[in-house]
């Protein structure tokens, strides 16, 4: 089955005959466009905006060396990007989150 691709969803094929589907995330969002779902290694926590999701990913999943929980491999659904530096992995995470951090002061459009 195909679903429309929107800023918060991606095409998804489901085996609807499978009785054991469990939670079915759509990407960094869900069918309710106000929710953003974390697809990091079966996390599935939901957030109201992409900034909250991004902060969750960087704090809870990437972590920090100083707290002995630093993870430099992306465990987002079907991704295994690995890097040597924390700032590189946190920058990479933006490919999974519909987050546009810079707004034009004139027209307010995000880059």
UniProtKB/TrEMBL annotation:
SMART domains in alphabetical order: ZnF_C2H2
A molecular function (GO) term: zinc ion binding
A biological-process GO annotation: positive regulation of transcription by RNA polymerase II
Gene3D superfamilies xrefs: Classic Zinc Finger
Subcellular location: Nucleus
GO cellular component terms listed in the entry, alphabetical order: nucleus
PROSITE patterns: ZINC_FINGER_C2H2_1, ZINC_FINGER_C2H2_2
Keywords: Metal-binding, Nucleus, Repeat, Repressor, Zinc, Zinc-finger
InterPro entries documented for this protein: pacC/RIM101, Znf_C2H2_sf, Znf_C2H2_type
Stretches assigned to the C2H2-type domain: 36-66, 72-101
Protein family according to the UniProt entry: Belongs to the pacC/RIM101 family.
Descriptive protein name: C2H2-type domain-containing protein
């Amino acid at each position: 089955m195909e679903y429309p691709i929107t800023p918060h969803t991606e095409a998804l094929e489901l085996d609807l005959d499978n009785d054991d589907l469990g939670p079915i995330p759509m990407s960094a969002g869900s069918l309710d466009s106000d929710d953003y779902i974390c697809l990091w290694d079966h996390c599935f926590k939901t957030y109201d905006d992409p900034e909250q999701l991004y902060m969750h990913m960087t704090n809870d999943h990437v972590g920090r060396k100083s707290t002995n929980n630093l993870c430099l491999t992306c465990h987002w659904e079907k991704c295994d990007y690995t890097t040597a530096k924390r700032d590189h992995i946190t920058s990479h995470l933006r490919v999974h989150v519909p987050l546009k951090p810079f707004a034009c002061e004139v027209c307010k459009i995000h880059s």
